[in-house]
Specification:
single chain; twelve-stranded antiparallel beta barrel
Length: 201
Amino acid sequence: MGTKVIKEMPVVSKMFCSSTQVVLGVRTRPHAVGGGGFVVTNLQSQAIVFRVDGCGVLGKKDQMTLTDAYQTPLLLIRRKGGVVEALSLYKQWGGYTVVESQKLVFTLKDPKTCFANNQPVRGSIEQNIYCKNFQIKGYFQDKECSILDSGGNVIAQVGVSKEMTETKDLYHVVVKPGIDQAFVVGVIAILDYIHNGSTRC
């Protein structure tokens, strides 16, 4: 029998796409220790793979950075704001590369509270031929949500296992094969900020 070909969906980098499903553990850092944000580990190897620093570290509201295990900057994540957002029905966020003169990689639109009416959080990927749009289904604040591609397929799922139910400071993210893990963690960072998580001041 032939082997199934995994279609990779690099957004930040092909380096963060795995041919197998990956389960990441997310542990939030309190603001008093380390300035907030969170650390992401591969639950199989227990190795740190990403860190997200919020405004407690950066000193800037509505801004975060995503770094790899060696603390090499991967993404600058910030809220767009300004006149455009004031006239829009959405709060808009952007994920930008740090290396290449801050090129926009993806956007995420969160409906403003007064217009929400159970509208999903939606986003778009700038340079991907397989998936241009995505949305969040479920409730991130309960750590029960999924990131869906434009075809409605689950590409990542946030959850809490029975061992983790005692605290909301530790949860897991299941990333499907071929999906860019750095992109998924960037989206999770924005959701954390939107829902008053550890990345927010």
